[in-house]
Amino acid sequence: MKPLIRSTLRKSTVAYLFLLPAFFFYLYFVGWPALQTFYTSLTEWDGIGPKTFVGFQNYIDLFSVEPTFWIALRNTLLWVLASATLPVWLGLVVSSMLVRGKARFGKGFQLIFFLPQVISMVIAAVIWKWIYDPTFGPLNVILRSIGLDAWATGWLGDPKIVMFALFIIYLWQTYGFCVIIFTAAIQGVDPHLYEAAKMDGCGSAGQFRYITIPGIHQAITSVVVLMTVGSFSIFDLVMTTTNGGPGYSSYVISYYVYYQGFIQNRVGFGAAASIILTVFVLVVTRLIIYVRERDR
């Protein structure tokens, strides 16, 4: 037993030695800036002058005297919920049709669906900002040409629908990623299961529910985690299209952090909001992983 223990310890020591450089870089480029951000969140600072330590006052003010933060928090929560469901389900349906429906030119369709993923979010936002143009945008022109003048509106200028219009852009760019992942996962499901289900009289909907979804459960969970984490970083979309407007109706926490830190010069306040966003991302991600491990 002792030689076995010594061998195990030796291998573990060598493994940790190889991990040390990466761990050092992680601490230097991630851990140390995170600690600095947390300390900044405990101060009142304009980004230039000396810092004034105020403790947790910034956090208290965020939840008590900042109604804009609550708008940003609500929009972020709704965005995360939609991002973790709609692109995933759309990707599931489309990929199932491509694989199980044996669609012709399936590879070509996968390429077409994935193309928006290649475009940066800023470019996608510029394209859709032109599409949404209330006067010359193709969307309103088409609606007017088919007699739906009442539906033609300023999509990015209406507080009631601006978040819906922004999410359409996000959905258009991201669901192709889900299609690619789910297509590969479905192709790995044992085809004999579908044959047995078909012999038992199970239709396409039943096969999708009882074979496809359980068969690619791990892929679904992984995509949900990726989509959830990615949904928090939508600053570039909001910045390019609406700048948080009209009013504060399209504020999200990431844009709120930028506005407070770089426009209002309230760096400590913005740092506090970024810490809350970080904690929120960690909690949501951990919850999803916990559900996956429990189901496994």
Question: What does the model show?
Answer:
- It is built from 14 helices and two strands.
- It is an all-alpha fold and about 300 residues long.
- The longest helix is centred in the first third of the chain and has 40 residues.
- It has a two-stranded antiparallel ribbon with strand order 1-2.
- The mean pLDDT is about 85.
Explain briefly what this protein structure is:
This protein has 296 residues and is mostly helical.
Order of helices and strands: HEEHHHHHHHHHHHHH
Treating each run of at least 4 consecutive H or I residues as one helix, how many helices? 14
Briefly note the structural class of the backbone.
mainly alpha
Report the portion of residues in β strands.
under 5%
The poorly predicted ranges are: none
- Average pLDDT metric: 86
- What is the molecular shape? flat
Helical proportion, percent range? over 70%
Helix and strand arrangement:
Layout: H1 2-41, E1 43-44, E2 52-53, H2 57-64, H3 67-83, H4 86-99, H5 106-118, H6 121-131, H7 138-145, H8 162-187, H9 191-199, H10 204-215, H11 217-231, H12 235-241, H13 253-263, H14 267-295
Antiparallel strand pairs: 1-2
Helix pairs in contact: 1-14, 3-8, 3-11, 3-13, 4-8, 5-8, 6-12, 8-11, 11-14, 13-14
Family: Belongs to the binding-protein-dependent transport system permease family.
Keywords: Cell membrane, Membrane, Transmembrane, Transmembrane helix, Transport
Main location: membrane
